[in-house]
Amino acid sequence: MTTTTGTQGAISTEIADIARQYAASGVEEFQPRLEFPPYRSSILRHPTKDLHHADPEELELLAPVFGPQDVDPIEADLTIQHLGEPIGERMVVTGRIVDGSGRPVAGQLVEIWQANAGGRYIHKRDQHPSAIDPNFTGTGRCLTGADGSYRFVTIKPGPYPWKNHHNAWRPAHIHFSLFGTDFTQRMITQMYFPGDPLFELDPIYQSITDQRARDRLVAQYDHALTTHEWATGYRWDIVLTGSGRTWTETEEHA
After folding, report:
1. Structure confidence by residue, pLDDT tens digits, 178-201
2. pLDDT of residue 1
3. Is 175 a catalytic residue?
4. For the range 122-131, what are the long-range contacts, defined as Cβ-Cβ under 8 Å and sequence gap of 24 or more?
5. Cα separation of 95 and 123, whole Å?
6. Taken in order 207, 212, 214, 217, is the CA torsion positive or negative?
7. Distance CA 84, CA 187 (A)
8. Is 160 annotated as catalytic?
9. What b/e readout covers 163-195, taking b as 16+ CB neighbours within 10 angstroms?
10. Which residue among 90, 120, 173, 216 is the active-site one?
């Protein structure tokens, strides 16, 4: 993160100018721009020189092997990892991992990490004045089923401030990580929640200039998945290939 620069008004004006230029270009962009000026540190988060091909090590060519002996089902419930109940809105997040043809991707390791209900990570660099929940670590993992499905029980994360500009806040989100067919194919992305008022103000979300591509990062509230007096439910599918693929991060984002 960089030192705070500019106001939200200035950032929003830059975002609006880029959006107008994109709309006038007639070109569809399905991935975020590597360099997006309103996202001040984006210049530091991607290569600035030509890439050079490097052959992976032999071990990296082997598929990751994760089975029931490695990943316990209880790791998918982030609300039972400590002695007490975490604070916040309990929710279920589920969906399917599929390829561009809609075929399920089974047996894949799915990892998530997130802030707590107050928008605080358990990380030494996160020092904003929101309480750390002693009963919520914010990490979990599971394996996809035969139908490509995953399921987590967690707490809805809160938005949090970051140092991109004055009064900058990130929309609530959950980070997702998936492994592909070998260790060189890790995919990282973020899931957002519908109707967040911070979408229009957030330069990371807006760095994906195409609205349809942005929409693919937003989960859908599912009342059929919601459980009486226990948890709300959200559904979010991840598409790995094709024109409808889910946006992925080239570098770790905030």
Report:
1. 976 666 678 899 999 999 999 999
2. 41
3. yes
4. 126/160, 128/160, 128/161, 130/158, 130/160
5. 28
6. negative
7. 32
8. yes
9. ebbeebbbbbbbbbebbeeeeeeebebbbbbee
10. 173
